[in-house]
Amino acid sequence: MSSLVDHLINDNLIPLKPYESARRLYAGGQDWLNANESPFANHYDVDSSHFNRYPSCQPDGVINGYSAYARVAKSQLMVTRGADEGIELLIRTFCTPGKDSILICPPTYGMYAISAETCDIGVKKAPLKADFSLDVEAICSNDDVNVVFICAPNNPTGTQVAKQDLDTVLRHFTDKALVVVDEAYIEFDAENTWANKLADYPNLVILRTLSKAFALAGLRCGFTIANDDVIAALMKVIAPYPIPDPVAQIAAEALSEENIGRLHAQVDILNAEKARLTEALNAFEAFEMVGDTKANYVLFRYARCKELMAYLVERGMLIRDQSKQLNLENCLRVTIGSPEQDDRLLQLINDYFSQTGASK
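^ that's the sequence the OP posted. Answer follows.
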């Protein structure tokens, strides 16, 4: 059977390494601070009386709720199975396999490249500068790409994207390529959203999700925001029933006025906890804080990060090793958890230094 698979598999998939999601890397554990999930588990009710019917392609309750939340027209919005599906749909819709390319700015979210490579689309790179700002000149030197992906705030560095830099990129690619601003973490940096700028840039696309601040990672519900003609093109490619009915019900409830208020309150709690955790980690002389804290995680460099990581994992504390990413050697990323989880992390780090004799 393996010889048949080897014979039939698409050539572009042979060298492809699948995305190493947090769940693929580690199962179990007591504290999951490795996937940028929310520590809050909010309750929702689901009506099962419609489960015998196929769901709507674009459920009204979800579209109406999110268009009001994001302050965009319903015609400028599409709901997808997580923002990851939005990434794939943009590539499938606007890139020709074996011919076209996308552009990414590493270190950044890995699914942009994985989705492109899966579809036999080339991946060009304009690495971020040493301070993790955009290298605008390098980006704009790639005129032969169809889609430019920019994560803002950036994962895993937690850094903002300067408005002037993004404006320059958008204007440069006006008649050449779509510029996709991934705002998965925008609730932690809300004043820097680009969702209110669609009228100024015909090639602007924005990705959003309910996985982070909305505390609904298990729901797999995301959004693509763009001008009407882009959304219309994407609707040609999306699956006929992309959003399961239970997902639509919960998403619509999460977008109610009451639950939006809860969202903002929980973001405030996480931001306060992030400041506390950042200060505590920064107190270790052996650690170097890296990037910024505009999302729901912190990033730090430690020369013996592999040893620390193994120590934590063995004790059920799961964080994320980012050392394979460009310019992030010996870097670990920690998702902001509950106060109890963060306290446990700090205690384990102190225990590690005490038991190993390593210098703090």
